[in-house]
Amino acid sequence: MATASDLEISTFKQCGPLIKFAAQTITDNEKKKALAEVITTVQESLDAHSANGWTPAIASKFWISFNSLCSLISPVNTDTLITSTDQIPSRFWLAPAGAMTTAPQRAAFWYMSLLFVLLIVSATLMFLTSNTTTINDDVKNLVKATDPIADDIVKQISILRDKGLTKDDDFVAPGKAELQKDAEYRTAAGKLASALPTLYANADTLYAKTDSVVYLNWKRFPTCERDKEFSKSSFCYEKGDGGIPTRLNVVQDTVDNYRLLSRRAQPITQRAQDVGSMIRATILPILLGLTGSCAYVVRMLSEQIRSSSYSSTSGIRNLVRVTLGALAGVAIGFGGVLSQSSVSAFALSFLAGYAIEPVFATFDSIANKLK
């Protein structure tokens, strides 16, 4: 007669935790009957081993029972039970020194933290880049509408100067009495007085829209100091104070101020639109792919914690899945295989990261056709 081999003895030791888990979780009556048969066979095998009555027939019966036990509790096995219950350092933020936890709980904490960060970053970038095209179009339309006003103001200034008005004179209340009786002068002064508020308002709106995209240009459009004489060469904008200038030199400076702003504003907003488009086409799909894959991993970790099915290889598999999720998001962002869908590219990037299997199945199908 013989005893069980080392492998069989090792398997005997594994049966205890597996049977205990099965007894705690199995509720189906048919499975309970199968478990009872497994327990009986395992016990008989242990008795045979203890009595040195181990035979090939008993070994065969034992391994068949062990296979039945594994099938009853699948996907749980010895590896998942050990990994799900062994205590390891928590490494949680603000966790007490020496705090312990399990591998799946620690993984869930870190992936939830990563998911939270990705959600914040993605939402922030989507908000910051969502209106760059609108702002750029608004700036172009505003310049297109304001340029004729500025041209007309310059024309009226020329008329007033031809009438003898100097740069320091007040065109609303000129010092020369004969100018107030001049019909052409009054018409030019009236047009000037009515056009200036519109120019001021449009210029301030233009500045506000340009300044609103500073976060994508990394350079703020400065305002000129109030006590500093305006310079045509300075890169600044002099905001209006609510009043209407009446001296010709101030009116001319106002027009020059607008001209400088309009020349600077369009390249700035266009650059912001280009940067925003680049972020939306590349960085955001990657982030959303990562977000989708992290959401899937967190969901799976929750299920694995509940069912004790987290294994020693789950960590690297989750990391690989997150990486592939980012790759799937890039494929969508670059106009990938799902670009013809009616769903938005951002939603597709998230879905591609969440469910990478269909995406890579499509890649495999395309690759097979090219063989």
Question: What would you say about this model in short?
Answer:
The protein is mostly helical and 371 residues long. Helix content is 72%, strand content 2%.
Which secondary structure elements does this structure contain, and how are they paired or packed?
Elements: H1 6-25, H2 29-50, H3 56-73, H4 78-85, E1 87-89, E2 100-102, H5 103-130, H6 132-162, H7 177-181, H8 183-211, H9 248-307, H10 314-333, H11 345-354, H12 356-370
Helix pairs in contact: 1-2, 1-3, 2-3, 5-9, 6-8, 6-9, 8-9, 9-10, 9-11, 10-11, 11-12
Main sheet summary: 2 strands, antiparallel
The ordered string of helix (H) and strand (E) elements is HHHHEEHHHHHHHH
Give the C-alpha Rg: 38 Å
Q: Indicate the structural class.
A: mainly alpha
Counting DSSP H or I runs of 4 or more residues, the number of helices is: 12
Strand order of the largest sheet: 1-2
General shape: rod-shaped
Q: Strand percentage, roughly?
A: under 5%
- Average of per-residue pLDDT values: 84
Number of strands: 2
Distance from N terminus to C terminus (CA atoms, Å) equals 60 Å
Q: Which consecutive residue ranges, at least 5 long each, have pLDDT under 50?
A: none
Helix content: over 70%
Could you explain how this protein is built, in words?
- By secondary structure, the protein is an all-alpha fold.
- Helix content is 72%, strand content 2%.
- It has a two-stranded antiparallel ribbon with strand order 1-2.
- Helix 10 packs antiparallel against helix 11.
Descriptors:
mainly alpha, 72% helix, 12 helices, two-stranded antiparallel ribbon, 371 residues
